[in-house]
Amino acid sequence: AIDDLNKIYLIGDYAKGIDSGIIKIYVDGNIIDPKYINEVIKKTEVKINRKNILLNEIDPFESKLLIYESK
To answer: Fewer C-beta neighbours within 10 Å, C or N terminus of the chain?
Structure first.
């Protein structure tokens, strides 16, 4: 799953409150099991009827919304 999880962001349209059907997610942490994460993403896509994209980096000019921060 994910080790050293620091933050999770929604990026782009969903960060601005726009339901575009594509949810971009950035995870600030070490994904140690990418296969499992991809399975979770695919299952989530089916349940919520939205495309989910896991980003490797954040475009500094794109809108972002912090949805999780470790303490």
So the answer is: C
Pairing of strands 22-31, 51-55: parallel
The residue type found at 25 is: I
Is there a contact between 25 and 37 (Cβ–Cβ < 8 Å)? no
**pLDDT for residue 28 is more than 90:** yes
Q: Indicate the pTM of the whole model.
A: 0.89
The Cα 13–Cα 69 span in angstroms is: 20
Please tell me the chain's helix, strand, coil percentages from 3-state DSSP, rounded to the nearest 5.
Answer: 30, 45, 30
- Residue 21, judged by CB atoms within 10 A of its CB (0-12, 13-18, 19+), counts as exposed
CA distance 60 to 3: 24
